[in-house]
Hints:
mainly alpha; 2 domains; two-stranded antiparallel ribbon; binds zinc ion
Amino acid sequence: MLRSVHKPHIVCRRCKTRFTGAYCPYCGAENGSPSALRSRGGVLSGLLRFLFSLMILAAILFITFIILDYSASAEGDRHGAARAILDSARYAIPQSALDYYAEAKAQFLDRWIAAIKDFFITVFG
Ligand SMILES: [Zn+2]
């Protein structure tokens, strides 16, 4: 009992084992702190970070697609490059997704883009 007063127990963060000393006797973690390479939490958070960056990338691609779509249809022949990129992107995207996009565009996007354009015209002249 007295020993535990001098040497406080550490609760291992990986396996919740209570121990004294530098290393967990059950899983070997140093001072009960998770090892960056071996812990399951590290792998899981790494996976979450990976999925998060995939989602960010998908959102950026989607926004780029919308900007290209609107700049190509707004400026006509002056944005031939945007039109060409858009046409090649359309081959890579499934038809059902394009139909869904066209529907969303007619329902909200046209109004939102018009509102954003109005905002920029008001602010920047
Ligand atoms: Zn442990």
